[in-house]
């Protein structure tokens, strides 16, 4: 049997707010295998965003272990975590998080600069990604000149720029209408099927969860159940 790509063992996250302790994650244990397509779902305040930050190496647990291919990254420095994020994890956010002063091509090139990719290769890779996401005619447009769906596709291209193993998507359709949201989820499905990317989607929306193969439900900082989904969205059933 394959080894898990990501493994959490008894992970706790506790924030100190003055004299008050806020426990956000309470003994989370889970495994995510290479090539998985997983949804972490829960209501506001459930701890799903904190869990996403830990899975995505944006944060470390207060207690417990998190392994990325057998390396316990809970013990890593921020510099080490930054290197892992840059090489192995791509992020897609609800708010797109594009730099408004840069055009689509420049936004996609940005993560490659931090990895020392030569300029000619950055341009070639960014153009290739934007064309593959049907944005070939929009590469020199700034975010303010793009629709919400186009901005999210630019964000996906940026997430893919360093060819990461893992894509972490935080409410990727949250600012989009249902038709555009469906298109974005189909892009993620394509990445999963054709490029075998491991994809973790964080959402409160059960429609999104039905696109994925595995559902992790979180409430009050604990996993309440973890099961396979049907792999079909309500949009496809309508």
Strand content: 25-35%
Number of E-state strands: 10
The whole-angstrom Rg is: 18 Å
The largest β sheet comes out as: 6 strands, mixed
Spans of at least 5 consecutive residues with low confidence: 230-238
Q: What is the average per-residue confidence, as pLDDT, rounded to a whole number?
A: 91
Total helix count? 8
Helix and strand pattern: EEEHEEHEHHHEHEHEEH
Strand order of the largest sheet: 6-7-8-3-9-10
Oligomerization state = single chain
Structural class: alpha/beta
Distance between the termini: 37 Å
State the helical fraction.
Answer: 25-40%
How is this structure best described in words?
The protein has 238 residues and is an alpha/beta fold. Helix content is 35%, strand content 28%. The protein is built from eight helices and ten strands. The strands form two sheets. It has a six-stranded mixed beta sheet with strand order 6-7-8-3-9-10, sandwiched between helices. A four-stranded antiparallel beta sheet has the order 2-1-4-5, with helices on one face. The N and C termini lie far apart (37 Å).
